[in-house]
Write a structure and sequence with these properties.
- The complex is a heterodimer of chains A (about 375) and B (about 300).
- With about 375 residues, chain A is an alpha+beta fold.
- In chain A, a hairpin with a 3-residue loop joins strand 16 (about 315-325) and strand 17 (about 330-340).
- Chain A has two domains: about 10-250, Rossmann fold (3-Layer(aba) Sandwich), CATH 3.40.50; about 255-375, Beta Barrel (OB fold (Dihydrolipoamide Acetyltransferase, E2P)).
- Chain A contains eight helices and 20 strands.
- In chain A, helix 2 (about 110-120) crosses helix 3.
- Chain B is mainly alpha-helical.
- Chain B has one domain: MetI-like (MetI-like fold), CATH 1.10.3720.
- The chains are: A alpha+beta (about 375), B mainly alpha (about 300).
- The interface of A and B includes residues 100, 102, 115, 119 and 167 of A.
- The structure holds adenosine-5'-triphosphate (ATP) and magnesium ion.
- Magnesium ion binds near residues 59, 60, 99 and 175 of chain A.
Chain lengths: ~375, ~300
């Protein structure tokens, strides 16, 4: 096998690193509708890059343009230094795994997997060796002679993966690779996918609308909305440091509150939040004009829930009653209504087997550290 | 549970099997009445001897002088049909005509079906309508129309003479070419419709997957489209081949006197010679020949069902 360079730890922070896949101003219009709208993106070698977005946000369209199955309206695609914008699919050094798997129903598992190599006129013995090798990797050797209709969904998914991987593409595109699997199998397969990607060092671009999947799999995530990226970053950056309302709201659960800037200095800003009925001062680098409308955001698990008021005084503290609660085993989710009618979601871990948490209509105190408050511009 | 209740139970529960049986009774009844019944009558006639009477064949059971009934069936008609060179030639000729017509229909119909299946969804229904549009006019009229077009003083010759392409009219009518033209024209929809139904269901992802794995459009067609459309090809070929084998009108009206077809011979035996028994034997043999491709089709279908 070709020598693969492993992923440099954080190439996207290195200004000298050469991107492996370079997308510049890529657009796809269907009539007046902009399915993909002037996207720029750099993906580095051996990354496992996820594109996360709601249904209809243009994820598949973007992937299809990368694969050459859809002609871009404008823009440029470069892979490993070669411009492939106008190359037909059969000449691109990448393979795609379809949302529907698209296994050839008239061929056996083995023939499906071997198909790509046959088209390359690889000699017979080598085809046999590599097919056996990859079927072993995806643990399907015992089903080599089965037809696609005779194997399960999870197995089909692995056949599709093997078929797309066998040509050792420079980039593997995966469109919702795990969508058809049940939760348990999905979690298991996620790790398999990461393992395989690790072993082969192929650059993966994964499209998904499953946040957990994106979080666990990826080196970086691009959040997509209406044909544009709202944010690109590591899973941690996306979750803990969203830079706009859409990303914050789309990824994970979050409490969002309107606030107005009332003052501040060079490194901090003071805000008035009517919903929380309080004035907050937060560190903030860029100065904000007084009167500007902003949003405050707090993740439910960052909020501490107690029946007594907290002793620390540097925290944001609110009082409310339990409106609703949901028990999820490992954690419980509460909806708390404060005095002025604002509803806040809080999640609490159930650390003790028999501990009794707050119940419906109990009076409770909410508090969180100021550093957990996210300040969002528009 | 009381005995009455127990007795009532089976009646209350709707038995889906019963409905299925009732629903199936309809097609089976239909086939029994209009296919098996007439077939048995033809079979009976084919075993009799021709006589000058009404009906023109001997009864299956002879009534002897003592009043006893005796079976009077003979295979003489079959022996005659099978040993006669002319009949053998007729069968082979029909086979050839049907096979070539089927092949021509496939060659013309496949690209058309493919084109319709790949057309924009809003366009497909219109195109399909155009394919079946000729059915709105009687089949016989359309064949007569071809006679008008192909004749010595027909439209095509007139047009070519007028344009100066030819000096003397071409012999178009009463040729094999005219027969094939008529056959392809008449039976093309039977090829296109099942092929379209098959190709339209073909998952476009499969074609894209093949392209992504390195296949050029031609290879995609050979590796994916063609093998997956095989059931449609078989269905279309059968739908053309079977009626083409017994076709009577087209060879009679458009073909030359030497184009002897089973259908034509059947007609002659039946109406001109009034030899119903030989005509019956002819018909039964034709059916036997047609059972071969139908059996093959069933076999392929069953094997495919097994696989999926
Ligand atoms: N061939 C097409 N013609 C017209 N509109 C299209 C076409 N393909 C996609 N679209 C539109 O482009 C938008 C983006 O589609 P796309 O399939 O990329 O979404 P997606 O993000 O993959 O969604 P999902 O998560 O549901 O798969 C959709 O609104 C869709 O209706
Ligand atoms: Mg999609």
């Amino acid at each position: 096998m070709e020598e693969r360079t492993p992923l440099a730890s954080t190439p996207w922070l290195d200004p000298d690193a050469r991107p492996f896949v370079r997308i510049e101003g890529l657009s796809k219009h269907f009539g007046d509708f902009k399915a993909v709208d002037a996207i720029d993106l750099d993906i580095y070698r051996a990354e496992l890059f996820s594109i996360l977005g709601a249904s209809g946000s243009g994820k598949t369209t973007l992937l299809r343009m990368l694969a050459g199955l859809e002609a871009p309206t404008s823009g440029r695609i470069e892979i490993d230094g070669v411009d492939v914008t106008d190359a037909p699919p059969y000449e691109r050094p990448l393979n795609i795994m379809f949302q529907s798997y698209a296994l050839f129903p008239h061929m056996t598992v083995e023939q499906n997997v071997a198909y790509g190599l046959k088209k390359d006129r690889t000699p017979g013995p080598e085809i046999q060796r590599r097919v056996a090798e990859i079927l072993d990797l995806v643990q399907l050797s015992s089903h080599a002679r089965a037809k696609p209709s005779q194997i399960s969904g999870g197995q089909s998914q692995r056949v599709a993966l093997a078929r797309a991987l066998i040509k050792q593409p420079k980039v593997l595109l995966l469109d919702e690779p795990l969508a058809a699997l049940d939760k348990k199998l999905r979690e298991h397969t996620q790790f398999e996918l990461v393992n395989i990607q690790d072993q082969l060092g192929v650059t993966f671009v994964v499209v998904t609308h499953d946040q957990e999947e994106a979080m666990t799999l990826s080196t970086r995530i691009a959040v997509m909305n209406e044909g544009r990226f709202t944010q690109i970053g590591t899973p941690n950056e996306i979750y803990e440091h969203p830079c706009n309302r859409f990303t914050a709201d789309f990824v994970g659960k979050i409490n969002l509150f309107e606030a107005t800037v009332i003052g501040g200095g060079d490194a901090e800003v003071t805000l008035r939040c009517e919903a929380l009925d309080c004035t907050i001062t937060l560190p903030h680098a860029a100065p904000l004009a007084a009167g500007a409308a902003v949003s405050l955001a707090v993740r439910p698990e960052k909020i501490f829930l107690a029946k007594e008021p907290p002793r620390e005084t540097d925290r944001t503290v609110l009082r409310g009653v339990v409106l609703d609660l949901g028990y999820f085993g490992g954690l419980s989710l509460y909806r708390i209504e404060t005095g002025n009618g604002t509803v806040i979601e809080v999640s609490a871990q159930n650390r003790q087997r028999d501990a009794r948490g707050p119940e419906w209509d109990d009076e409770v105190y909410l508090s969180w550290d100021a550093s957990n408050t996210i300040l969002l511009g528009e | 549970m009381s005995p009455e209740a127990a007795a009532e139970r089976p009646r209350r529960r709707a038995d889906p099997q019963a409905w299925l049986r009732r629903a199936l009774a309809l097609p089976y009844g239909w086939l029994l009445l209009f296919l098996l019944g007439p077939f048995l009558i033809v079979l009976k006639i084919s075993l009799a001897d021709p006589i000058v009477a009404q009906p023109p064949y001997t009864p299956l059971f002879e009534v002897a002088e003592d009043g006893a009934r005796r079976l009077a069936a003979s295979l003489d008609n079959y022996r005659f049909v099978l040993s006669d060179r002319l009949y053998l030639y007729t069968y082979l000729n029909s086979l050839k005509l049907a096979a070539i017509s089927t092949l021509l229909c496939l060659l013309v119909g496949y690209p058309m079906a493919y084109g319709i299946a790949r057309a924009h969804p809003a366009r497909r229904n219109l195109l399909l309508m155009l394919v079946v549009l000729p059915f709105w006019i009687s089949f016989l009229l359309r064949v007569y129309a071809w006679m008008g077009l192909l004749g010595t003083n027909g439209t095509i010759n007139e047009l070519l003479l007028w344009a100066g392409v030819i000096n003397a009219p071409l012999k178009l009518l009463y040729t094999d070419t005219a027969v094939f033209l008529g056959m392809v024209y008449s039976y093309l929809p039977f090829m296109i419709l099942p092929l379209y139904a098959n190709l339209e269901r073909l998952d476009p992802d499969l074609l894209e997957a093949a392209a992504d794995l390195g296949s050029r459009p031609r290879q995609v067609f050979r590796d994916v489209t063609l093998p997956l459309s095989f059931p449609g090809v078989v269905a279309g070929c059968l739908l053309v081949f079977i009626p083409a084998m017994g076709e009577f009108v087209i060879p009679t009206l458009l073909g030359g006197p030497e184009s002897l077809m089973i259908g034509r011979v059947l007609f002659e035996e039946f109406f001109a010679n009034r030899d119903w028994p030989v005509a019956g034997a002819d018909a039964v043999l034709l059916l036997a020949i047609l059972l071969v491709p139908i059996g093959l089709f069933q076999y392929f279908e069953a094997r495919r069902e097994d696989e999926t």
